[in-house]
Structure formats: C-alpha cells, structure tokens
C-alpha cells in the first residue's frame, strides 16, 4: 500500500506514519521518495493503533512488536503483552475511580450552587 492508501484505510495522517517509521515501528519499502507498506506493516499499524487506544506508550508498543520474532511461536510476545495490559487495566480502573469521585464532588458543588442561586433570587424578589 502507498502512504495515501494507508492513511485512508487506517484514518491516520502521513505525518503519523512517518513518525512511526522514525520510531522504528514501521518499516515501509522505499522506492525513491515513495513508501510502500507491506502486509506486515499493516498488521503492525493495527497493533500500534490498538495499543495507543489502550494507553500503551510507544516504547512499550515497539518492544512488544519486536518480540514477534523471538522464535517461540509468540509466547514471549503474548506473555509480555498480557503483563503490560494487566498493568494498564489497573491504571485505567484507578483513573476511572478517581474521575467518578471528581464527578460526584462536582455534582454536589453544582447542587449547592443551584440552591445558593435560588436562595439569593428568592431573597431579591422579597426585597423588591
């Protein structure tokens, strides 16, 4: 695939693809100034985008992709991916819990604000 076809197929920008190439995540074939992406690059890009969606760092993703060639039918790669995913899930659950707590506190403050506004409006009407 050309860079344009990759961009269209995976909803990324050419800059993103060049960035991933510079970080040694993708290895397109170069023909002059043209980049051609192989089936392997497409598979790697899918994994990169999934990893980013889950909040994996690019370095974690790079290391996991490099484990593909470990020669053990991907046991090492899958084991390490599982470990990192477990850590990421723990962090995401913690973030969600903190966000839920902040949302509850903000709702309480908004309720207090509504009551204060209503009270002040009632007081102003009574004074008029």
Number of domains: 1
* Content of β-strand: under 5%
Structural class: mainly alpha
Oligomeric grouping of the chains: single chain
CATH class: Mainly Alpha
Strand order of the largest sheet: 1-2
CATH topology: Multidrug-efflux Transporter Regulator, Chain: A, Domain 2
Detail the poorly predicted runs: none
Shape: elongated
Helix content: over 70%
| Biggest beta sheet summary | 2 strands, antiparallel
Series of secondary-structure elements, N-terminal to C-terminal: HHEEHHH
**Terminal residue distance:** 74 Å
H/I helix tally = 5
Mean pLDDT: 92
- Report the strand count: 2
Tell me what you see in this structure:
With 128 residues, the protein is mainly α. The chain has one domain: Multidrug-efflux Transporter Regulator, Chain: A, Domain 2 (Orthogonal Bundle). The chain is 73% helix and 5% strand. The longest helix is centred in the C-terminal third of the chain and has 53 residues, at 75-127.
